[in-house]
Design brief:
Shape: elongated
Number of helices: 12
CATH class of the largest domain: Alpha Beta
CATH topology of the largest domain: Rossmann fold
CATH architecture of the largest domain: 3-Layer(aba) Sandwich
CATH superfamily of the largest domain: Response regulator
Order of helices and strands: HHHEHEHEHEEHEHEHEHEHEHE
Strand content: 5-15%
Helix content: 40-55%
Radius of gyration: 24 Å
Largest sheet: 5 strands, parallel
Structural class: alpha/beta
Strand order of the largest sheet: 2-1-3-4-5
Amino acid sequence: MVTIKDVAKEAGVSIATVSYVLNNDTRIKKETREKVLKAVKKLNYVASGIARSLKKAKTNIIIVFVSNFAGPIYQEILETIHVKLKERNYRMIVSNGDLAESFLLERQSDGAIVLDPNIPLDLLIKAENKNYPIVDTTKMINQNNIIDLHINSFDPAYEVIKLAIKENYQKIGFMHGNQKSLDNKLRYEGYLKALKEHNLEPFCLLNGNFTETSGYDAIKQYIIDGNELPEVLFCSNDEMAVGAMDYLKKRDIEIGKDIKVIGFDNIELSRYYRPSLTTIDINRSEWSASIADTIINMIEGKKVKPYITKSRIIRRDTF
């Protein structure tokens, strides 16, 4: 069997150089690339890895990186992406960020969709430098082969807090989700801007991690420590809001009267929970479909259309 070492010897270059050429690294000079490809052809060398050949054959596979597989939001996003990719004859593999390095640098797919904020930026840049298409939703970066398609969470967060202030609420608290998350960062910044414009300070800041349990635990500890309840608690997602309300009800605190609660995401439970949760709805189906179309258009060299986040405040019983 012909090895990469044989190709390097035939071309008179290092093994690393052969690897760079096979991975379409743009830093390799044209004459060196041609010399390596000539050796590859002469020796009939086939590199290892999924669907890798002399011309880097298409796999029609898109890798989607998520930070976890739980929760209603990821399920909705992944289902929409799956359906849209299938319509255009592509398949989807879902992985957590632990496998990102091998998937990205070995080009085991035609492109990647990044929903996991824990994947390092430098790893994305390395893959991008090898002409590997990436749609990223987590870091607000744009490169030649990386397109940013994050949700604008800032504006709706800003608007809902402005609404609370307009209705004469001043003691407004915020419950964080994962603070590495761009979604959490933008929602918090929108909250802060609205307060600042009205010369208000955050009344309280609680820390969760986007789960019901963390919302329950955060408000429980806050109350046990003897702190005054805010008039309005804005939670960075609905799941934490539901968890917080579970504990508030356990303490016989009347939600909607003793404290107002606002969530974000408009998950199905927010509508059926009692009291029903005031929240912010993002058209995630449209956004997810745009992600799928964008990565395919990048792969196929077609025009990429910009996406503008569509959101609305849904008022229910809790505010």
